[in-house]
Amino acid sequence: MQKAFNDQFNAELQAALVYKQLGLELDRLSLVGMRDWMREQVDEEFGHAHAFSDHILARGGQVTISTLSVPELNIQSAKDAFQAALEHEKKVSGLIRDLAKTADAEGDLDSRQLIDRFLTEQIEEEDTVNEILDRLELVGDDGAGILRLDAELGQR
């Protein structure tokens, strides 16, 4: 279980880096509200990593940071950035489900509260990004609509 939790800890760190890169890409596109939304996601993902590292340490384990990388992203629009965010959230959701299966197979009941929290959170994360993508689809190439959404997301 320690390895499984360390893997998830590192996946959360990687998610923070993905959001950081997406924020940088949105900044390059002068969408600073969306950039700020991504920055909030970075902090949230680091918080997730802390929750997993705290769990490992509380159970007498050792936390190990592995080599982290960000997949190559080709971001040309806000829609590209949020599509990449959704795909990464789906990946993380799968990892959390796999962690739950591993914990169940190992009979690790003590980890269920933490895992269940993240199963629920991943549903919310995917839903939020899907909603933003739906709204980007609605505004299409309308610059004013994109800027309104950019301003709104910057208020997060």
Automatic annotation (TrEMBL):
Native organism taxonomy: Bacteria, Bacillati, Actinomycetota, Actinomycetes, Mycobacteriales
PROSITE patterns: FERRITIN_LIKE
GO CC field: cytosol
Protein keywords: Iron, Iron storage, Metal-binding, Oxidoreductase
GO molecular function, one term: ferrous iron binding
Superkingdom of origin: Bacteria
Binding site for Fe cation: E12, E45, H48, E89, Q122
Gene Ontology biological process terms in this record: intracellular iron ion homeostasis; iron ion transport
Record-given protein name: Ferritin
Residue span(s) of domain Ferritin-like diiron: 1-140
Chain's gene name: ftn
